[in-house]
Hints:
- The complex is a heterodimer of chains A (about 110) and B (about 425).
- In chain A, about 30% of the residues lie in helices and about 15% in strands.
- By secondary structure, chain A is of the alpha+beta class.
- Chain A has a single domain, classed as Fe-S cluster assembly (FSCA) (GMP Synthetase, Chain A, domain 3, 2-Layer Sandwich).
- Chain A is globular, with a radius of gyration of 14 Å.
- The two termini of chain A are about 20 Å apart.
- Chain B has a domain at about 1-140.
- Chain B is globular.
- The model of chain B has no long low-confidence stretch (mean pLDDT about 90).
- The interface of A and B includes residues 27, 62, 69, 75 and 110 of A.
Amino acid sequence: xxxxxxxxxxxxxxxxxxxxxxxxxxxxxxxxxxxxxxxxxxxxxxxxxxxxxxxxxxxxxxxxxxxxxxxxxxxxxxxxxxxxxxxxxxxxxxxxxxxxxxxxxxxxxx
Amino acid sequence: xxxxxxxxxxxxxxxxxxxxxxxxxxxxxxxxxxxxxxxxxxxxxxxxxxxxxxxxxxxxxxxxxxxxxxxxxxxxxxxxxxxxxxxxxxxxxxxxxxxxxxxxxxxxxxxxxxxxxxxxxxxxxxxxxxxxxxxxxxxxxxxxxxxxxxxxxxxxxxxxxxxxxxxxxxxxxxxxxxxxxxxxxxxxxxxxxxxxxxxxxxxxxxxxxxxxxxxxxxxxxxxxxxxxxxxxxxxxxxxxxxxxxxxxxxxxxxxxxxxxxxxxxxxxxxxxxxxxxxxxxxxxxxxxxxxxxxxxxxxxxxxxxxxxxxxxxxxxxxxxxxxxxxxxxxxxxxxxxxxxxxxxxxxxxxxxxxxxxxxxxxxxxxxxxxxxxxxxxxxxxxxxxxxxxxxxxxxxxxxxxxxxxxxxxxxxxxxxxxxxxxxxxxxx
Lengths: 110, 428
């Protein structure tokens, strides 16, 4: 899960983008990707208006992986005009149960 | 990264296989309606042979080939080697299937049957070549790949032996009688092709759809070696000596392999993240129960065979019915509505997701039709199999009627998914 540095001038925008990414749902689980703990961090290059989202998938074979990546890109670019988003898929740390937020667990009935 | 690499060519191949298989399923149920009495006799009967091949090739294999073109690149994490090869394979498979099934139905084992068998053989060889060349790009790493490659090899060997048997009707290639090879042909197909392929693919899909935390593949490795070992032992032993007391041992080895797979599924189920199990997955779990029942009939087939009791024929019929019309059919009826809506959803919504509120893949099929399909299929299982065992025609009729309803509902729901129109519910 991403952490935020108060001294970072982009921390507010990062937090805002994280909230925006709650709109992206996992098509199988019907839970947003933030509460699933799939997003590890966001880097913003404010002058160039570039955003890099570092995230993972629940499975490296996830057949919907491509769609989730598209959705993340679309979501950022659709809500933050002029920003160009890229998604960096990483497999370390490996996603696990522990990555899910309390709200995510509640939604999954865990 | 892995993912459904959606392109129009691949989409057409996959959908064509799914639709053809759905029509074959409907035709199969109609063929069964016209063969009710044949289900009370011996399995080496023209109509039963035609029905079995329609079920195994037109229904089971056709849909597995279609799903494979979509799923094997996902499992192997690489693009399909050739779409053209897939189309050629389909172009050979369909006329081959029609020629073979028709020849069995009217029982004219001549040129049509032989041509059909050759076309089918060419089709499955091309499919296997496509899978092999797809996988060649990467080093073999997972047990799922072992399952899939072994299954493809078994498919080719099954069809090759089947083609030889088709020629044997007129050319007398084999010294032994046709029935001696029939059980080898049937088990290479049922265990070698269907079981290995379905374990290989489902052991990837089931944990993924359940979002299971169970990651170990140790049980699958045991399962693979036990099943392949039992199959090879059975083929050699049964070819040389026929059924013997060793067949019990072979059965035990194979059953242990299937049990390992069941334990794997159970562990996935217990460690699943997604607590709610949807209807397509329920159908899949029903299929595992039917596979277990099919497996449990085998000792009875062997026992009554030794006693020269003709009831062994009944058990053989029940075994085949539980395998083809039970396990394989239930799995397809469920997994179709896990895979096809995703494939169609990606085509319609991948570019819109994240911008607009869109339906989810599970919203693409009619849930009520799927519920009705599940009920009618359960009626089929509860009436047809007992009816065939008890030789009670009214039960067989009810079962086949229920199967026809199942096939019509299934086909309708496939078209509902395929003719889905893109809709959005406003901007996100």
